[in-house]
Amino acid sequence: MPIAARLCYGPGKIEGEAQPAMFKGPPETLPQHIGFCLMSNFSMMAFASAVEPLRAANRLSGRQLYEWHIFAESAEPVRASNGIPVLPERAWAEVDRFPAVILCAGTGSDASQSDRLYAWLRRLARNGTQIGGISGGPILLARAGLLQGRRCTLHWEHIPSFIEEFPEIEVTDDLFEIDGPIFTCAGGTASMDMMLRLIRQQHGHDLAAAVSDQFILDRIREPTDRQRMALRMRLGQSHPKLVAAIKLMEDNLEGPLAPSALARAVGLSSRQLERLFRKYLAMPPARYYLELRLKRARALLRETTMSVLDVAVACGFASASHFSKRYRDLFGRAPRSDRRAV
Predict the structure, then answer these.
(1) What are the pLDDT digits (tens) for 151-166?
(2) How far is CA 267 from CA 27, 173, 248, in A?
(3) What is the pLDDT of residues 47-60, one digit of tens each?
(4) Which of 14, 144, 168, 195 is the right S-S partner for 118, CB 3.0 to 4.6 Å?
(5) Is 257 exposed, middle or buried (0-12, 13-18, 19+ CB in 10 A)?
(6) This prediction's pTM
(7) Residue 211 class from Cβ within 10 Å (0-12 exposed, 13-18 middle, 19+ buried)?
(8) What average pLDDT does the segment 88-114 reach?
(9) In whole angstroms, what is the distance from residue 325 CA to residue 108 CA?
């Protein structure tokens, strides 16, 4: 479809007047226009999982229910995290208002993003645009001030750093969250679940089920379904006390539990816990716990502007010097070097 010099869709809503909620029922007019704003290093999986259900809905219904448009910082191709370039239709700054815009980002959604982007997102919100973020996109929505007073979610890998940067924002580990005109999604295949929910709300269960069947999905997941596979599946081990001990470690990274307290909590002696970890994971529990904390620290260094000392404290280290030594031992570089590299 031809695109005007400045994209202005919608039935002439005045500034500040909300559009009908996307996830509440059928749109006023067809097709439903959805813009995808791609950030450099965006997740191709999350993007494709959002677009493909719309394409399938059009094909299976025999109608043009949805039309999607691609925006980016400029008219130049934008590369996904897998290196594949995607050619946008327009620079996002040329879009004055739009029914719905979804911000697609991935790992590397750092604090250096342009203030112009944040101002544009706020302008769209004032003009009644419904705005979403998938994968790392909610981080940018938070920096634009659009998540204040709202529930949100994002990819589990980004949640710890998000909580450190935005302690006042309520974040969940759900697959997706819909809070009025703002919606957020964990990305990956969860983008498909969110779009299947959209199709079901707008055009009925039968069409959503048919789209799901096309992609060989045995069910449409609920938003509250967990993002990550069960811990025992991630570990490749099912010993209940081992799983319980590691769950306690993951829940207590900022204030590490003493080995004796950890053992007591799972009903073992310290010696029994030591044998259990060596048997199944080939390392003592203290080493496993330390690596968990250091991996969390690396994520915070890469995804936030927290100081090295603040990162150390957030991961249970008493001093920056001790933290730096342990970090270098595991990753082969100092924390500051890792941040500069990113």
Answers:
(1) 999 999 889 889 988 9
(2) 56, 29, 13
(3) 999 999 999 999 99
(4) 144
(5) middle
(6) 0.78
(7) buried
(8) 83
(9) 25
